[in-house]
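Marked as duplicate of an earlier ticket. Keeping the data here for the record.
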Amino acid sequence: MVEAGTLRHRVDVELESGSTSDGEGNTYKTWAAVYSGLPAFVRPRLSRERVVADRSVPLGTHEVTMRYFSGLTTDHRLKFGTRYLSIAGIVNVDEANRLYELDCTEGIA
């Protein structure tokens, strides 16, 4: 059971909706919000950096607790403020369809 006030953050759940081109041959994924402003609790667990294209890119690993809803998969991502969290793993706590615990990665995956 989650106590009142525990889910003090707000997240949007997004799903890839297609791709777009910048006219120079680069293609980018586009995302659309499936749910907006869902209550969640976002906890940083680990911070590290990875070198991508000769520059250091910060990666953060978070655990996110949120209420259960049907259909969430690792194809979704979370928007937390101006940050994006890729969902690496999903646990339906106690298989009770009440809470999710999500393992998420911030940064370039």
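See parent ticket for discussion. The CA atoms of residues 8 and 102 lie 16 Å apart.
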